[in-house]
Amino acid sequence: GRSFFSTAKGRIGLGPGFVKEGDMVCIFIDGNMPFILRPSISTDENSYYTVLGEAYVDGVMEGEALN
């Protein structure tokens, strides 16, 4: 299923049903759809994330966030 969420900047979105506080909205280079990422492991040198799935976020679709 899917669930509604809001970002720290007040944007409204629809994403995977298991989205929780602390997850991140990310748009990959040359991408036009945001994804939800969850931090999983961090070391002194690297941070790793789990991709939870695609999302709809008002105002950031189709590259709008980069304009």
TrEMBL record:
Q: Which InterPro entries match?
A: HetReg/Transcr_Mod
Supply the Pfam families for this chain.
Het-6_barrel
Taxonomically, the superkingdom here is Eukaryota
Q: Mind telling me what this protein is named?
A: Uncharacterized protein
State the species of origin: Hyaloscypha variabilis (strain UAMH 11265 / GT02V1 / F)
